[in-house]
Write a structure and sequence with these properties.
Blueprint (H helix, E strand, L loop, with lengths): L9 E3 L1 H4 L12 H6 L4 H4 L1 H6 L5 H14 L7 E4 L7 H13 L10 H8 L8 E6 L9 E3 L2 E3 L2 H16 L2 H6 L5 H11 L2 E6 L1 H5 L13 H16 L4 E6 L4 H4 L2 H15 L2 E2 L6 H12 E4 L2 H17 L12 H9 L4 H9 L9 H18 L17 H8 L7 H8 L5 H8 L1 H4 L3 H13 L11 E2 H6 L8 H12 L5 E4 L2 E4 L5 H9 L4 H16 L6 E4 L13 E4 L13 H11 E2 L2 E2 L6 E5 L2 H25 L7 H25 L2 E6 L12 E6 L7 H11 L9 H11 L7 E3 H10 L9 H12 L6 E3 L1 E3 L2 E3 L15 E3 L1 H28 L6 H9 L27 H17 L22 H13 L9
Parallel strand pairs: 2-7, 2-8, 3-6, 6-7, 13-14, 14-17
Antiparallel strand pairs: 1-9, 4-5, 10-12, 11-12, 15-16, 17-18, 18-19, 20-24, 21-24, 22-23
Length: 937
């Protein structure tokens, strides 16, 4: 589905998208409206109701006022007591316009329905009295038409009936004493229907200090007037009063203000009606009507909301549980084009600030936000916390105006702006920059954490809410989780604890860590990378691994070795390739000597694009370790939270290092040469194979890559060995080759297969020995012929003295031996016949079929005992003894009835004398092995 951005569906009011709105326009002044000096949208009833959403509470209040003015019920006194900026004045204006008669009922949106609800056919025009505590001064009488109005009751009488009405309270106004209830009842009845709107009454009365008398009366006289007025209103069925009081003592201000608030609550409490505050969804509509003219395509808006709801279900594990409920879709429809999470943060968190007015503050902030986004051609589907352009000067100023000092550098460095850390990360990492993932995350965290107090138990917002504040349909939630992880390691004022994130004006330990990172040299970093590599390797499929070892120190022998190149020599696909250059040097020479066993080396190299990130993270790990050590050794003093953060950061950075090591050292490099048709070989070629960094054990992954790509052979078929012998060895008259020579050549030449060990070739020879198709075998060759020759016979060969014979030549040798054996057998038979000995046919046949030359030994003079002595080298004794068993012992044990005894004599001498540990171990081992004698002298 092709979803439209908010700017194509919701059109802001002209003053909003042009930025011509005035901050004061969001602050309704009841006196200015009453006197006709307010802006058109406030003083014109028609425009006012066009931009006003009549909430459930306002509808109930207007209904009550309509009933009261027609004498059909309603409440005489209504107290409006909500939080600062909660819409009290706006509600009074709604009553003023409905009852003032300056516009027809049909021209005021929503009023007809109110009258129907009140069962009122025609609403009479009422006298409107406004007593504004911010406009009146207790000690500065107001001059009107030559008359000095000193007190609230003087103002009330003058606004009700001018000079005639004022005359009834003139004495009380001059004396500053409250008139009686009966006087007030007469005034109200004479001028009914009446609506009295009292705003900021606490602020007015709190100005009377102690028992002092001002022109406006005294503290007590004003409270007496309020008491009398509320009682009088009950006796006039077509008169009503709306009075606003602060919701909390904090808004009341001084001690005198608190005292005034408590007294007024007592008097109003006797007769007041409760006014239901604005619900969250109603607040959505209030803000939307004031900021946006119309939703031009409701179907498109609903499609966007549905796409969000469906996307939230897909990513349920990463989002708050409320997003999975059906009513969340309805909340998005109500708030469109603003995401409900914006209202959640502003009404729940920001409205807790002393100077942030709920509705008015939201309107002022969002007007600046919408203007900035409109000018920047923002294409978001909804206006989300992550959309707020906090780098914009006006938005920035509006936000910090509600906060204590110190937040400017936090926003500029860690939250938003072209020079901020999040923007820098997005430039370097395209996957983040494509969706502004880092800045969206930091904006969301700031909006949800800046208003919170530093001593709150649970600061900040959860990870799930951060993602909710950023995620749009078509985006993957893990990108924002990754962005959080990256920001955690980079930002100075960002904090994390218990899966919650928050900004603070105090630098976190990140700055100290950043300072310490500069202490560590390249050598420190390389050594830590070496240690990290050893932790992730696991069981390696090599006989030796050399991590960052100089080429001169890498042995040139028959062992299969992996050379891990240093991060300074990284692999790149384009341009100069330091990894290939260093690998070629190591392959070519060992110090000043040429390297012979080239086919025993493979190389593992880092990725150029990842090296700098790995090094930086390594330095961070070293810095966190030093901070943790200093705390442990009491060289640095931190609070408990910071100490936990240091440990958590060290653990998280350590895990990050292990992951980055796997991601960085991901190129397995192998040298090779291709044979040419003319018998020569081509130049050395370097092949690179990617190692999967997601696998925990690097050793297992290397083993997989080596096996799947046949870079190292662990099982070799005899047919491949035969083909190799045919191509490179059995030619130009050569019909046999030493097996050890083939093995050694495979270790030297890059165009030969790379065998894991010599045992691979030994196993291949053993597998092919039983066949006549691959090669013949012999253990030696003299002028008289091959020694220990065999063809097509299974065996367990030892390669040290083994010859591999071309199969056709081996067949010829076998035939020659057979003929020679037959001739020998006939000659021996004739010799015995001449001496009178009989020769059985069985003996003659056995001589021909034995496959070995006759010995000339008869049954009567056969030896019955063999003995032999051999001196074994202490270093290679295991191999030599194995050959003795294979060549001699197994020769005798193959014949049933032959008894074989083996005695082992061990003599060890040390002119210095054996130490106690050696003596003790030798005696113990001798007893364990059940040796006949085992002692020292």
């Amino acid at each position: 589905m092709n979803l439209k951005p908010w700017r194509e569906i919701a059109v802001p009011h002209e003053d909003v998208h042009r930025g011509t709105f005035q901050q004061a326009e969001f602050a309704a002044d009841i006196t200015q409206v009453h006197t006709g000096r307010a802006s058109e949208e406030y003083k014109n009833p028609t425009l006012f109701f066009q931009r006003t959403f009549i909430t459930e509470g306002m509808a109930a209040l207007l209904t009550s006022v309509a009933q009261r003015l027609t004498g059909s019920g309603g409440d005489p006194v209504i107290q409006l007591q909500t939080a600062f900026g909660g819409g009290k004045t706006h509600t009074m204006l709604a009553v003023m316009h409905m009852a003032g008669g300056k516009a027809a009922t049909s021209d005021m949106a929503g009023i007809s329905g109110i009258l129907d609800r009140a069962n009122v056919l025609s609403l009479p025009t009422a006298k409107i009295v406004v007593l504004d505590g911010t406009n009146l001064a207790p000690n500065q009488p107001r001059q009107v038409d030559g008359q000095r109005l000193r007190t609230l009751w003087g103002e009330l009488a003058w606004q009700l009936g001018g000079a005639e009405a004022y005359a009834k309270v003139a004495d009380s106004d001059e004396a500053g004493t409250s008139p009686g209830k009966s006087v007030l009842v007469d005034l109200l009845k004479a001028n009914a229907p009446v609506v009295i709107l009292v705003d900021e009454l606490v602020r007015y009365i709190s100005q009377f200090e102690g028992s002092s008398t001002l022109t406006g009366g005294t503290f007590d006289s004003n409270l007496s007037f309020i008491q009398s007025l509320t009682e009088a209103l009950k006796e006039v069925p077509t008169a009503t009063m709306l009075a606003s009081l602060p919701e909390s003592e904090r808004e009341a201000g001084s001690d005198r203000g608190i005292q005034a608030l408590r007294s007024l609550e007592h008097y109003f409490g006797r007769v007041q009606a409760i006014w239901k505050p604005v619900a969250a969804e109603e607040a959505f509509e209030i803000v939307r009507r004031r900021l946006f003219t119309v939703i031009v395509d409701r179907a498109a808006a609903d499609a966007v909301c549905r796409a969000f709801a469906d996307h939230y279900v897909t990513h349920a594990v990463d989002l708050p549980g409320e997003t999975q409920e059906g009513h969340y879709y309805d909340r998005m429809r109500s708030a469109y084009p603003i995401h409900p999470e914006v209202f959640e943060r502003l009404y729940r968190d920001w409205s807790s600030l002393p100077n942030f007015q709920r509705t008015r503050g939201v309107l002022k902030l969002m007007a600046r936000v919408i203007h900035a986004l409109w000018q920047n051609n923002n294409q978001d589907l909804l206006l989300m916390p992550g959309s707020l352009p906090m780098a914009d000067r006006e938005v920035h100023g509006e936000l910090v105006s509600y906060l204590p000092a110190g937040w400017d550098p936090v926003i500029e460095r860690d939250v938003d702006g072209d020079r901020s850390e999040p923007a820098d990360i997005e430039i370097k990492e395209v996957r983040f920059g494509a969706i502004q993932a880092c800045r969206r995350v930091t904006r969301s965290i700031f909006l949800g954490s800046a208003p919170t107090s530093s001593n709150e138990m649970a600061r900040g917002i959860e990870t799930e809410r951060v993602i909710l504040s950023c995620l749009q349909p078509g985006q993957a939630s893990h990108l924002y989780r990754d962005a959080l992880g990256r920001l955690e390691t980079r930002l100075t004022f960002l904090n994390k604890g218990n899966n919650r994130w928050w900004f603070d004006v105090r630098p976190n330990l990140r700055r100290e860590m950043e300072d310490r990172k500069r202490r560590y040299t390249e050598l420190d970093v390389v050594e830590e990378i070496r240690a990290a590599l050893q932790r992730v390797t696991g069981q390696m499929p090599f006989e030796a691994v050399h991590v960052f070892t100089p080429g001169s120190d890498i042995p040139d022998d028959w062992a299969l070795r992996l050379v891990v190149l240093p991060p300074s020599s990284a692999w790149t696909r384009n341009g100069p390739n330091p990894a290939r250059d260093l690998a070629a040097t190591i392959l070519r020479t060992r110090g000043e000597q040429p390297r012979q066993k080239k086919n025993r080396l493979l190389f593992l190299a880092a990725d150029t694009d990842q090296v700098s990130h790995l090094k930086d993270t390594i330095r961070a790990l070293l810095a966190w370790r030093s901070i943790e050590a200093d705390v442990r050794d009491q060289r640095v003093t931190l609070d408990n939270l910071q100490s936990r953060q240091a440990t958590q950061n060290r653990e998280q950075t350590h895990e990050t290092v292990l992951r980055l090591v796997r991601e960085t050292f991901k190129w397995l490099i192998t040298p090779s040469q291709a044979p040419k048709n003319d018998g020569g070989v081509g130049d050395i070629e370097w092949d690179s194979h990617t190692v999967n960094p997601a696998v925990q054990s690097l050793g297992n992954e290397l083993s997989r890559v080596l096996t799947e790509n046949e870079l190292v052979i662990h099982e070799w078929a005899p047919t491949h060995l035969h083909a190799l012998l045919q191509k490179w060895f059995w030619k130009d008259g050569v019909v046999d080759i030493a097996a050890i020579d083939v093995w050694q050549k495979s270790c030297q030449y890059l165009y030969f297969p790379r065998l894991a060990k010599s045992t691979v070739m030994q196993g291949t020879i053993a597998a092919g020995a039983a066949s006549r198709d691959f090669f013949g075998l012999a253990y030696g060759k003299q002028e008289s012929g091959y020694q220990g020759f065999s063809l097509g016979q299974a065996t367990s060969p030892l390669m040290d003295a083994l010859l591999l014979i071309e199969p056709k030549h081996a067949a010829n040798v076998e035939e020659s031996l057979r003929i020679a054996q037959e001739v020998t057998a006939v000659t021996d038979a004739e010799t015995r016949a001449g001496s009178g000995q009989s020769v059985s046919s069985t003996e003659s046949v056995s001589g021909r079929t034995s496959g070995s030359a006759t010995t000339g030994v008869t049954a009567t003079n056969r030896p019955t005992r063999y003995y032999g002595t051999a001196d074994l080298d202490a270093v290679t004794a295991s191999l030599q003894f194995s050959r003795l068993v294979t060549e001699l012992v197994e020769l005798f044990t193959a014949n049933p009835g032959t008894q074989v005894k083996i005695r082992v004599d061990i003599e060890a001498e040390d002119s210095r004398g054996f130490n106690e540990a050696t003596v003790r171990a030798a005696k113990e081992n001798g007893r364990t092995l059940r040796m006949k004698t085992s002692d020292f002298d």
